[in-house]
Amino acid sequence: MAERVPTVPITIDGVEMEATAGETVLQCARRHGVDIPSLCFLEGLSPVGGCRLCVVEVAEDLRLRPACATTVTSDMEVTTQSSRLRSYRRSILELLFAEGNHVCAVCVSNGACELQDVAVRCGMDHVRYELQAPRRRVDASHPRYVFDPNRCILCTRCVRVCDEIEGAHVWDVAHRGHGAELVTDLHRPWGESTSCTWCGKCVASCPTGALSHQGSSVGEMRHTPDMIAWLVAARRREWTEREARR
Amino acid sequence: MSDTALEAGASASGSRHTVDPGRPEHPSGDDRFALVDTHLRRVHDAQDQLIETLHVAQDVFGFLSDDVLLYVARALRLPPSMVYGVATFYHLFTFEPPGEHTCTVCTGTACFVKGADDIVADVATAHGVHVGDTSADGRLTLRTARCLGSCGLAPVVVLDGVVHGHQSPSGALALLDGELGGVR
After folding, report:
1. pTM here?
2. Do A183 and B84 touch (CB under 8 A)?
3. What residue ranges do the domains of chain A occupy?
4. ipTM score here?
5. Which of A17, A104, A216, A235 is the most exposed place for a label (fewest CB within 10 A)?
């Protein structure tokens, strides 16, 4: 019953595999059990290639490519682990930790945080950069959810899920560079937002403790980012069993 | 009321945006929104005209208030957060009412090398104003910009929209004195 999907041969870390034409390097690698760390990518949402954690080396290409936003081509030779990539990934993670206030010990997502998991997997045991320790105001005005920008890494998953899946586009990134921050509507408290539908998909997608349920205490928050891919499939009327990641 | 009438009114007075006196009052009670409407009609409410529309709105109102941002968002059928995100990304959009006069000093690479920082410091001290702020008496707003694209004229000072090239701290202060009537 399934249509034959054209495949292309590609090599990832020396292993030859069949990639589905049109899929990205990250999707192909994950399907074959190759682990490429990522943060801003979320299956079901458009890739932005913003966090750069998933960068890979492609043979005969001097530039590093974000695996999440690079489509497979025939006979592509991809390297996902090298000392250069490991060092870059570590630096990216250290910069993320230095930029915000990522204090795991007091975070609602401690123990179930994608940033924490990736840092552990990439062997990031300390931060070489000066911690910025910014003072950012927590927005707990929403009756159901809390936004703590101190834990936000600006992955824009919430922006994309609200725009692409819910269709409300409550969230967006305001300002630029060092001052960039997430805003709801015209930078008004989330609880006063007239466009928010309270659907909670932004909270479900958040990789850190930046978005959480009201009343969650340290280590209690459990996000459900895999819900988004399931929802996208369901919208195509292709229900599959939803595997809870956490 | 046709676009042509408004355009004719605008060109007659020499200003880019003027209200046609014969035009019925804008439903908002503020006729300046009519000028934004004229622009919106000209671009057929196209969403990709957001930045241009924000420029027109800032030109008309002097700054972008929440009301104006929301008006533009609704007219272009865009989410408010996106309009806010785009507007705050660019340094040339401002969200506070500016002073009577606006002085922008370019601090781009060429102007910086040619001593733009001294001009900024001297103007700030002489007029008691911080960069990005308006003086307490509301007479002068001091801003900096990163490269105005006229590096051949470095260092560049823009006073009330008029570009003055090859400036020095004393020259810039003299310019300001002339414009502000010598009042410190």
Report:
1. 0.83
2. yes
3. 7-81, 108-235
4. 0.90
5. A235
